[in-house]
Amino acid sequence: MSASAWIGDARPEAPERLIARVREVLESHPKWEQLPVADALVEAADALLREVLREGDGPARDRALDLLAADACVTWAFEAAADEPSKLVRRARSAMERLAQGVAA
User: Fold this and answer.
1) Which residue, 5, 66, 61, is CA-closest to 33?
2) Nearest CA to 68 among 16, 29, 103?
3) pTM for this one?
């Protein structure tokens, strides 16, 4: 299952604008759809956080949506990873390191 399909099935359902923003990011990187859902969502969160951190890049309201979308991606990534508990700790550590590097850059 692709990350786009997975978030469409996630419950409780997220606001449509949030889902649309995450799908937009996923669709702009088609190679991520070949990754496990959790990994694709971490990639999307990283891309969204980079957008948030760019100063002067659009109205503050748009950056707020990206921040909320990044948060949703991380939450969904952990939910998706919970389907494979043996890999959860490794994925969690890797995701935290990856996102921290993006913020520090």
Assistant:
1) 5
2) 16
3) 0.79
